Amino acid sequence: MEEGGEHPVARKVQAQFPAAFIGAALFRGDLSIHLKKEGLFEVGRLLRDDPALDFDYPVHVSSVDHMGERERFEVVYEFFSIRKKHQVRLKTRVSEEDCTVDSLTPLWEGLNFMEREVYDMMGIKFNNHPDLRRILLPDEYDEGYPLRKNFPIEGRGWRDTFEFLES
């Protein structure tokens, strides 16, 4: 993996938010910027509002479970600039005890359902999300988070209680 700190986008983020910037990496030309969660929203605003960056398209939000590490969960945002034709990933880590991060939906409305999916499947809460509720699982589901590594592969037995209609 190449060092990404010299990439112009990474340099701009580091210069404007040195306290939030952890590091940057390039892999096959794709830039990832690692941030402290406290700086995520302001860095997102910079990516959207700075005319030189112009990240106008939120591509994806995902999460990673690094079970056994102090900051167990990682939230990964991917953005693209249609006019500038460049991309960036923002990555931030959260602990299981403080499993929250600021929502970027107020900056990009298109992130609404993607953040809800991460919340529903991994249990990461997004502060200031306009409608943080389940999107894939039933509202009454309370048996854990299916994308966490410690969720049983066979589930927790609730699938056995579904009644299927015969066609």
Number of strands: 8
Q: State the shape.
A: globular
Q: What would CATH call the homologous superfamily? A: NADH:ubiquinone oxidoreductase Nqo5 subunit
Amino- and carboxy-terminal Cα gap: 52 Å
From the coordinates shown, what is the CATH architecture? Answer: 2-Layer Sandwich
Q: Could you say how many structural domains there are in total?
A: 1
Spell the H/E element sequence.
Answer: EHEEHEEEEHE
Helicity range of the residues? Answer: 10-25%
Stretches with pLDDT under 50, minimum 5 residues: none
The count of helical stretches stands at: 3
Which range does the strand content fall in?
A: 25-35%
Quick one: biggest sheet?
A: 6 strands, mixed
Q: Biggest sheet: strands side by side, in what order?
A: 1-2-3-6-5-4
CATH class category label: Alpha Beta
CATH domain fold name: Beta Polymerase, domain 2
Rg over C-alpha atoms, rounded to the nearest angstrom: 18 Å
